From TrEMBL:
Cited InterPro entries: DUF3515
A Pfam family assignment: DUF3515
Cleaved signal peptide residues: 1-22
UniProtKB keywords: Signal
High-level lineage: Bacteria, Bacillati, Actinomycetota, Actinomycetes, Micrococcales
PROSITE patterns, sorted: PROKAR_LIPOPROTEIN
Protein name: DUF3515 family protein
Length: 162
């Protein structure tokens, strides 16, 4: 009777040990990951984006969806300076598109401090769906500025506020 009990206990411990480590994605924390506002964002993020389940990550103020990851989010980034790079507004949050390749799209929120970075693998997730899913949480960060279009900029390069 002791052998089956021992085997059950050992197999149970192995399952716990394996499940405790499996699925944790190693992510480098953002420079200001400890910003209190990031905690608010993290608590509001969705558990799923399309068919991608949220998973554990190794750093504060980070999360990911999918295994392998289709999207990774880091809160606590340095806010980007004004840029001519493409900007899109999703649910009241402006996102600058910093990089696009076949394997990775990189977006960073604009006009909010701290900024939020989102990396999307377009082979696994839709960039539009990811931004739609996370923007309500990022909207909790105070908006300090917004993206400007060409019509919003005067001939001297200064913003025209109406």
């Amino acid at each position: 009777m002791r052998l089956p009990t021992l085997l059950t206990a050992v197999s149970g411990l192995c399952a716990v040990a394996l499940s405790g480590c499996a699925g944790t994605l190693i992510v480098e924390p953002a420079p200001s990951a400890a910003a209190p506002d990031c905690a608010t964002v993290m608590l509001r993020l969705p558990d799923r984006i399309d068919d991608l389940a949220q998973r554990k990550t190794s750093a504060q103020a980070t999360t990911a969806w999918g295994d392998p990851a289709g999207a990774v989010l880091r809160c606590g980034m340095e806010p980007p300076a004004p840029t001519t790079k493409p900007c899109v507004s999703v649910s009241g949050v402006d996102w600058i598109s910093l990089e696009q390749s076949e394997e990775s799209w990189k977006f960073v929120s604009f006009g909010r401090d701290p900024a939020v970075e989102v990396l999307v693998d377009p082979r696994k997730a839709s960039g539009a769906n990811v931004l739609n899913a996370v923007s309500p949480a990022v909207a909790a960060l105070h908006q300090q500025d917004k993206c400007q279009s060409a019509e919003d900029i005067g001939e001297d390069g200064t913003p025209v506020r109406g």
